[in-house]
Amino acid sequence: MKENKLITFVVPCYNSQDYMEKCVDSLLKGGEKAEILIIDDGSTDRTGEIADRYERDHPGRVRALHQENGGHGEGINHGLREASGVYFKIVDSDDWLAADALQEVLDCLESFEKEGGIDLCICNYVYDHQGKKRRNQTIRYGNIFPQGEIFGWEQTKAFRPWQLLTLHSCIYRTEILRACHMELPKHVFYEDNLFVYYPLPNVKKMYYLNADLYHYFIGREDQSVSETVIKKRCGDQILITTKIFKSYHLEEIAKDNLKLAKYMYHEMVMMATIATAFTRLNNSKEADAQVEEMWKDLESFDEKLAHKIKHASLAVFENIPGRVGRLFGMRCYRIAHRFVLNFN
């Protein structure tokens, strides 16, 4: 019988032998309160062997779970099925957690459990640039959330355009994730946006800890945020954007929780803008057709909302038709990308 832990850390790994140890070692500093599930996603290098070694060396704290290659999303699905922790946190295998902030998070979560717990804990995260002459940047939420108290959506303030709840900033209560019966798609990039978005209507009690917990590694050419991968996998961003758009009718959400609906709308705007920009980076008529098909699909679900997002938001700048629109969209993307990664 599995021992219930305070938190489960899930580490999806695919051919991660060169960097996964830094990640797992940072999680081990959580001590006996933490369960670490290393998901070997059909790796062809020494990832599975390293995972098995961690399980042998740390029995009861680390489990190595091996699966056929299904992608990052299937690794999260697997981890959620196996998790024994009250709380659930994904840490990508090339990222890591800061020790002091981790202890602060664990202390907070443990104290909340004495009072019935919370649904979502939000922390800061750091863009950790490697091998570049660019200082690390921290994304904080102090302008949005109250500090030092448990709060609901009605106590939140407006998000700035570049601020989103992300995989890096969120720690969900495990039962909140399971209650929404979310199944992430296999072999699809950017599914972490859906992971964060889909449970939001179930979230009632939140806490913001102004601590720089998550270090998000920036520097590998094969990362999903590199421009080469973005152009190649733009169809994945369209797919996830469409799934997010079709997850809920925002008019229904707004009847019960207007501020939650406003945040979900903000998320939709950003996802639609990003999907359009990612696709138009390919600078082709075929890419234009992909974008147009996405908007038709969104309109078939909620024409009014799709029209609002397309014509009355950031996305309007990405949807200028033809060659001029493609060039303008590419320029907007690069300016925005540079701005976000240098924001503090």
Structure, explained:
The protein is α/β, with parallel strands linked by helices. Helix content is 44%, strand content 18%. The chain is built from 13 helices and 9 strands. The chain has helices at 20-28, 47-57, 71-82, 99-113, 174-179, 192-197, 227-232, 234-245, 250-256, 258-280, 285-301, 303-311, 322-341, and strands at 5-13, 34-41, 62-67, 85-90, 96-97, 120-129, 137-139, 170-173, 206-218. Strands 1, 2, 3, 4, 5, 6, 7, 8 and 9 form a 9-stranded mixed beta sheet that branches. Helix 8 runs antiparallel to helix 10, helix 8 (234-245) packs parallel to helix 11 and helix 10 (258-280) packs across helix 13. Residues 338-344 have low confidence and may be disordered.
Order of helices and strands: EHEHEHEEHEEEHHEHHHHHHH
The 3D shape can be described as globular
Proportion of beta-strand residues: 15-25%
How large is the count of helical segments?
A: 13
Number of extended strands: 9
Average pLDDT, rounded to a whole number, is 89
Rg over alpha carbons: 20 Å
- What fraction, in percent, of the residue positions are helical? 40-55%
Unreliably modeled segments:
338-344
